[in-house]
Specification:
This protein is of the alpha+beta class. It is 27% helix and 18% strand. It has a 5-stranded antiparallel β-sheet with strand order 4-5-8-6-7. It has a 3-stranded parallel β-sheet with strand order 1-3-2, with helices on one face. It has a 3-stranded antiparallel β-sheet with strand order 9-10-11, with helices on both faces. α5 packs antiparallel against α8 and α10 packs across α11. It starts with a strand and ends with a helix. The structure holds flavin-adenine dinucleotide and iron/sulfur cluster.
Length: 316
């Protein structure tokens, strides 16, 4: 075992400052992703900063009529919250489609957004992976790529982002609140939060080193029928091959985001203008720049069929 040190932070600003000044430091929340990566030798933090007792576990109404979800709110509590169930049904459904009850009891809002890819080569330390070891190569390109991205990938990485919750956050236009190591707060729209891989797939978000997520804010509810549909290889306890978060208004307009197809939750607002024309038109616009591999081109048809099913479900 590699030795590491541990501290329990007393305030968000103190946690961010400690992370920035300690080389190799990482925050730990529920630990359901980080500890797995440590045990497998994929990550080896020199110092863990426990953020569980910072008082960031509340869900509060905002003055604008939205909801502020603390970074440490557990996935189970968020899915079960009465306001979330009533006004942001797509979020509750996406959360309940993820992981297992036990994992959701530990997993947190911030940790869920920052969970790392499930690309099998990322977990195999004997094989090249640009995300794990920058510059080493990508074993998925030309390898087993059935689960991988069909859009937004690069010649360095075609991994997908595995979170269900993040897809719902994207369709709801959430914002991520943070505190930087200098103590200053900032707000990042979820659309800008996750990065495409480019030639630096190991840098997955726009967070600075040491920057701590304090909350995720949802704007005022927009109503509509809200659906989350997830297609996977088995009925539960599996990551999405394709997932769809959809919100459909009574007049047929709405929003759609996809999971399981890109390095980040995939939403193209211009595609939503096609909603009255139907699922095929929406899918064609959403995946207009798709570059699937031979093994995962089935995801294009699957995305169309899942969007069609989600829209039909939303229209009742
Ligand atoms: C078997 C299994 C099946 C799963 N299935 C699914 C699934 O189907 N769908 C799905 O969406 N997820 C799934 N998950 C993933 C699960 O949702 C994540 O592991 C969980 O959400 C991570 O949250 P955590 O609080 O445990 O994060 P941690 O493991 O504590 O942390 C994850 C990362 O976030 C960082 N971090 C944590 N808190 C903060 C903060 N406040 N600010 C900045 N950085 C922070 C940590 O440093 C670390 O890098 C599965 C996990 C497992 C183990
Ligand atoms: S797709 Fe990305 S995570 Fe997977 S092997 Fe290639 S570089 Fe690594």
């Amino acid at each position: 075992m590699k030795p590491f040190t541990y501290e329990r932070a007393r305030s968000p600003a103190e946690a961010a400052a400690a992370a920035a000044r300690t080389p190799g430091a990482r925050f730990i929340a529920g630990g359901t992703n980080l500890l797995d990566l440590v045990k497998l030798g994929i990550e080896s933090p020199a110092h863990l900063i426990d953020v569980n007792r910072l008082g960031l576990d509340r869900i509060d109404a905002t003055p604008e009529g939205g909801l502020r979800i603390g970074a440490l709110v557990r996935n189970t509590d968020l899915a079960a919250d009465a306001h979330v169930r009533r006004d942001y049904g797509v979020l509750s459904r996406a959360l309940l489609a993820g992981a297992s009850g036990q994992l959701r009891n530990r997993a947190t809002t911030a940790g869920n957004l920052l969970q790392r890819t499930r690309c099998p080569y990322f977990y195999d330390t004997n094989l090249p992976c640009n995300k794990r070891v920058p510059g080493s190569g990508c074993s998925a390109i030309g390898g087993f790529s059935r689960q991988h991205a069909v859009v937004g990938g690069s010649s360095s990485c075609i991994a997908t982002h595995p979170s269900d919750m993040a897809v719902a956050m994207r369709v709801l236009d959430a914002s991520v609140e943070t505190v930087r190591p200098n103590g200053k707060a900032r707000v990042i729209p979820i659309a800008d939060f996750h990065r495409l891989p480019g030639n630096t797939p190991h840098i997955e978000t726009v967070l600075e080193p040491g920057e701590l997520i304090t909350a995720v804010t949802l704007p005022k509810p927009i109503g509509g029928a809200q659906v989350y549909r997830k297609v996977r290889d088995r009925a539960s306890y599996a990551f999405a091959l394709v997932s769809v978060a959809a919100i459909v208004q009574p007049d047929g307009t709405g929003r759609v985001a996809l999971g399981g197809v890109a390095h980040k939750p995939w939403r193209v607002e211009a595609a939503e203008a096609q909603m009255p024309q139907g699922a095929r038109a929406v899918t064609e616009r959403l995946l207009a720049d798709a570059r699937p591999t031979e093994e995962n081109q089935f995801k294009l048809t699957l995305a169309y069929r899942t969007i069609a099913a989600a829209l039909a479900q939303a229209k009742g």
